[in-house]
Amino acid sequence: MITPLDIQNKEFKKSVRGYNEAEVDAFLDEIMADYEVLYKENLEMKEKLEIDEKQVEKYKQMEDTLKETLVVAQSTAEELRVNAMKKSDVIIQEAELKAKGIMNEAKAEVDKLYQQHDEMLRQLQIFKTRYRTLLQSQMDSLLVDATSLADELSTQKTPPPKNEKGDKILSEDRREVAE
């Protein structure tokens, strides 16, 4: 690239029918001044472009970093969501198992109470039957004793026994007859 100094130091050969040397020098001075301004502007623009390119590169790196950060944040958020779902599923499963256990325990307790109830009813029935049998045997025994006593008394001809009030105590057979 031609520099302003190259223009200033450029010398043309002189010829017989050449251009007016003063006009050429004046025009070259004018070109050199304008070229020098353009050259400086070009250098400034190159420097500014270089700074801007560095800044753009810096922004691209920041953009890449932000993109990576966003991707990491999104994947982390997704992992958190998945983990939260897994954890909630585990909690629900544990709660369901615990509820089933409680229900099974309650059912077992109810079954046990029913069995105890049935056993108590069976024992009550046995007791009633035995008590009825006992009462019946006692009544039969008393009837036999009373009949024996009545027979014995009728053979002895003694008056029937009396209670504290002095009333005659009769057997049920004799009461029926007495009444």
- Level of helix content? over 70%
Silhouette: rod-shaped
Overall radius of gyration: 66 Å
Query: Beta fraction of the residues?
Result: under 5%
Largest β sheet strand count, sense and barrel closure: none
Total domain modules: 1
Mean of all residue-level pLDDT scores: 85
Kindly report how far apart the N and C termini lie.
161 Å
Order of helices and strands: HHH
Stretches with pLDDT under 50, minimum 5 residues:
none
- Given helix and strand content, the structural type is mainly alpha
Determine the number of helices (DSSP H or I, runs of at least 4 residues).
3
Number of strands: 0
Could you characterize the architecture of this molecule?
The chain has 179 residues and is mostly helical. The protein has one domain. Helices cover 83% and strands 0% of the residues. It is rod-shaped.
Provide a concise account of the structure shown.
83% of the residues lie in helices and 0% in strands. The chain has helices at 4-9, 21-156, 172-178.
Helix and strand topology:
Blueprint: H1 4-9, H2 21-156, H3 172-178
Using brief descriptors, characterize the structure shown.
DivIVA_fam; rod-shaped; 179 residues; mainly alpha; Cell division initiation protein; cell cycle; cytoplasm; DivIVA_domain
